[in-house]
Amino acid sequence: MASWLYRIGAFAAKRHWLVIGVWVLILVSLTAWSSAAGKHYAGAFEVPGTESQNALDMLDQRFAAATGATVNVIFTDKNGDITDEQSQISSVAEELAALSGVTSASDPFKPGNGTQISRNGQSAYISVQLDSNSPVQTATGEQSEVALSIMNSADALQSQSLAVAYTGIPDAPATGADYTDLIGMGISLIVLIITFGSLLAAGMPLITAAIGVSISGSLLVVLSNFVTLSATTPLLGSMLGLAVGIDYALFIVSRHRSNLANGMSPKQSVAVSTATAGTAVVFAGLTVIIALLGLFVVGIPFLGMMGLGAAVAVVIAISIAITLVPAVLGAFGAKLVPNATSKAFAREQKDAPPTLGAKWGNLVTRKPALTVLVVLIALVTLALPAAQLRLTLPGAGYDAPGSITRTGYDTMAAEFGAGVSGPLLVVADISKTEVTDIESVLNALHDEFIGVRGVASVSPAVPNATLDTAIVVVTPTTGPNDAATEDLVNKLRAGEAKFEKANAFSYEITGSTAIGIDISARLSEAILPFGIVVVGLSLLLLMVVFRSLAVPLSATAGFVLSVLAAFGVSVAVFMWGWGADLFGVTKVGPVVSFMPILVMAVLFGLAMDYEVFLVSRMRERFVATRDPHRAVTEGFRASARVVTAAALIMFSVFFSFVPGSAALLQPVALALAVGVAIDALLVRMTLIPAVMSLLGNLAWALPKRIERRLPDMDIEGEKVQGRLETLAWQQNAEADIVIDAANLKISGTELPAMTFTARRGNLVVASVPTQVAGELFLAAVAGRADARGLLVSCGKPLPYDGVRVRKQSALVLDNVEVVESSVEQQIVTGLRMNSLAHDEAHVDATLTIAEALLGASGISGDEYRLNRSAEGLGQAQRSILELAIAVQCPIEVLAFDARIAAQQHEAKFISRVCAFTQANVTIVSVVSTDFEPGGLSLSRERELVRV
Length: 947
Fold this sequence. Notes:
- The chain is an alpha/beta fold.
- The strands form five sheets. Strands 6, 7, 8, 9 and 10 form a five-stranded antiparallel beta sheet that branches. The protein has a five-stranded parallel beta sheet with strand order 17-18-19-14-20, sandwiched between helices. A four-stranded antiparallel beta sheet has the order 2-3-1-4, sandwiched between helices.
- A hairpin with a 5-residue loop joins strand 8 and strand 9.
- The protein is elongated, with a radius of gyration of 37 Å.
- The relative contact order is 0.08.
């Protein structure tokens, strides 16, 4: 990973204008596309498989008239007697009933509609039923034509003595500018300026993050035309994309500035920063993405799509961090080098005075057991209120005071009772009922709910046109978000079985209140499987990254404490009302039902961000020093400042979404802001260093059996550092040196360390004791196997540039496979694979070389014939045939095993290979331990190097 990112960073720094241009083109294209496509976000929530959704589906199929929206037009006489306005209200009811898209408008003053007049006689409402094809809101969030028509008709009665309010009609979209993002970015800029001490460096993360948010926002608008996305999805994507976009860029820019202060050249620093900090960015981002996509485990489509939308924003943030950020850094070059008199420069010097971060690290690790105890007590105290967390699906009662929806909700609750705003719709399947029994069936359905405690009123049962479905509206005495209403729904559902047994048909309960209850129940059931999938995958990822058991386990335990503490603070603010006015809470009460699981998903990913960034520097120091305590203090010192800045930025961005946001987003934003602050400052910056210090070497322990099965992701950038060391070692080497090795140890062998140099056209002969050792040596030189020490082949450092070396070298061992039926076809295939002409002339030339090499090998065997079966060739003959192809290749290094030949013929065989190989090709060969070089016959241009 680190090597791959190094190449990306190097390319972006070198071709910075090209990379910047590509991102600008993407931004402009997506912006234009999204403007042309328009927004099509869904406002309704669906929960497949629940009773409420099943009932709605039945209504869609059998009783479409009942699935349309209901709008209540409420009239309140400020003088106290609504009957004074009877004629005018009745006239409006007739006018509304005649509107296109309206199926009925019930006049409150007609017989049988007495419940539409308040008990105090001050208010009355017209219930307007729309058909299923007439929504109150357009796909772009505007008020629909029928909604505007209703309001135009009713508003005509508005006067000093008569107030008009509405339920069921949404507010028009805000037309003013939304400064939420700007507030968060403004605070972030201040933090970045303090962190870097440079306005130029501080501005980069903000600009690149803004570009990422713009791209992801446009992409989500486009996606809304193809998949169902809720209106909350772009807000969550914007919030999360801005936060991680700034943080990810911050880590790379910070590492770049550190490298520059230590004397590294700008372009080299960009590549190294992308390889080291960029690797941490990629893996931290992966944990966020895993957590977000884990929302699909819940089984609620709109929540899964919210996670997908947010994951899109994170993917773009990662992509920008490892491509656009390096390009911008490359474009500014040496302008970002800290001034020699600046604090940023002084902090990087070995004799620099201890920073505040270093002092804090020393403090929390001085008595680690005490630190752990104090932090645990604080976290448990904050988490205690979480036990009282109640969930709901916020309705109009949670909207901003003064809005159309909130005014209508409050008026209905005050005049007609809290339950009127959240009626329960009872749907019964009466398809097996005889027509003559319909009246008794309807009466039974109605009577079932009469007199039930908690029920304020029950409407008459109404059948559909085909008499196979009936509905009853049950109005609770309590509001839709009241715990008593949830108890009532559960009680009515518990009586379904008894009712069916007595009446031979059953019923189901739906409506917005029942849907909210079902969503909360489904989310509660999903928390455990969600946690197992997401936490399990992330634990595995962290185990791969850090090669440790203690690190991922302590990271996860810290996350659990952080998220419980965030829930505890949310309960105190949103349910107890502590600081509700300060935070702009629109209504104190239960929080949105998907807050816990959404916060768990996002916060887990972000917590792992800080874990990766902080502990990767500790791991980097541990790899270098093998001193666990020194690794904790030095790693903490190197990352504390930037992690603190990242946490403050993340907190600022999330918190900026709290005041003035919708009830769906407010508790999520506050929980994330508090959770990030607690997790970064208390858990990652205090608890984790103390735990790591307590564990010592155990913090980095991993059972060998597990370690062998895990891939090496090199998050510390060891391969990149090795590459840089090799390049530094080789930088003064002469131009014609093709292979250079120092203290080279071949992995998997007992060969002693080797040091040798081979110039262009030299012959390198290595005597090795075993077959395997020889093959591994040749493979390492040809870029096909790893080795320890310093090794350059074809002018490229190994094993870091193995891909390039493999393109410029050929390797022939004694294990060539037969891939074709005949010798001719075997030759043709070999020539084609090496990009050589496979015409008759080249085939004949290959055959001639092969026969000459076979003759020099001292191996008895039938001659090569084009039509001969390739499978009939001996192993040595196959290898010699492959070697005959290799000597014709335009390569720099030819590595082959001379032990293909008979032992006493190795010198003659090598000499013949040299004769057929171009003079500028460096040849590396492995021979037996008793090889005598005196038998070699070489041209004057080709010198011998013994290993």
